[in-house]
Amino acid sequence: MAAPPGGAGIVWQTPANPPESHDYIIRNGRRYVRPYYFEFISHVKNRWAGKTIVDLFTDEFKGRSRDYYVHAVKCGRLQVDGQTVHTDYIVKSSQKISHFLHRHEPPVLAGDISILQNEVDVVTICKPASVPVHPCGQYRKNTVVGILQAEHGLTPLFPVHRLDRLVSGLLIFAKNADRAECFRQQIEAGLLQKEYVAKVVGVFPDGEQTVDANVNFNAREGRSTVEISGAAGEEPNGKQALTRFQRICTDGTHSIVLCKPVTGRTHQIRVHLKHAGYPIANDELYLSGNFCPRSTKGTSASKEIAPSDPDNSAVDHGSKDAETDVEFDIDPMCTNCPNLAPVGYDGDEEGLWLHCARYTGPDWSYECPYPDWAFLGSVSTKKMKS
């Protein structure tokens, strides 16, 4: 197998390299990851077979220019089955393609990941908004699992449940496979009860309100919709979804609502609140019909081999901006350098006003403190948690 490209000073990482505490840079309320060299691996799909290596990347990974891919092949940063190839090389189905590049992860909000309970086989934490739970898309180190490993030495961890990246609150991890399996069986048996709090627009009605409406999730848009009943006899397409809501308090403009999802569909609470006429007050995706599909955002999950570059061109390496950093080496081929954040990152992102407050099982219960936004006026903590 050919050696990875680069001089002796370059350390190429793979998923086997664990995150470390010095990988992170905190700046202006954001947690950044120091850019690092990484080997992305993929296998040639049937529809890719027969293309040249340069045509394949130019057609399928449009975030970078053709000139970049030509240069990457010539200098060995694009390899096939561990070997350097020429630019006219024809790829074959199932071959392994390695793309060696300088990886920039999107920043996340810099809130602490506080450990709530640390038991023999379970650890619970309070997840900050904007941090994904586990590696996905452009995120690998800037995740709850990565940060817990780097800063607290907690590994391995088995997530019992997941929260959307922009949602904050309680996360439960099993510390071993047996405890994880026990939790899984309880989930499948429907023995878990979940409680969230949300800050919504308007004066939410008093008394328990129930929304029983199927939910359709569009993965391409990253958005769910409530299914509208069709013609008589027509089979429903969405998944059955039920959520119970209870107003905690209101100031006449917003309300804090306790949300108890009985099912666990994607964006269920968010879309059910919108359907009820009381969307989460800072939920841009569901406040109106005007939204930007996830696939067009710079912080969206990138394809594995080549991170997105919305400008379809290399960055001017002579320019500097507020995110320019001198604490890492600039890579001459990197289309994200000299900045810490990848091209296209939306720096104005904020956490969603939706928070996981409590999970309860047959013989256990874990909870997480309410966030600051959940307190309206002089409403007391005791009243809100009762």
TrEMBL record:
Residues 298-321 are annotated as: Disordered. The keyword Endoplasmic reticulum does not apply. InterPro entries: PsdUridine_synth_cat_dom_sf, PsdUridine_synth_RluA-like_CS, PsdUridine_synth_RluC/D, PsdUridine_synth_RsuA/RluA, RluA_PseudoU_synthase. It holds the Pfam family PseudoU_synth_2. Its EC number is 5.4.99.-. Signal peptide: none annotated. Responsible for synthesis of pseudouridine from uracil. This is Pseudouridine synthase. It is an enzyme of class 5 (isomerase). It comes from Sorghum bicolor (Sorghum).
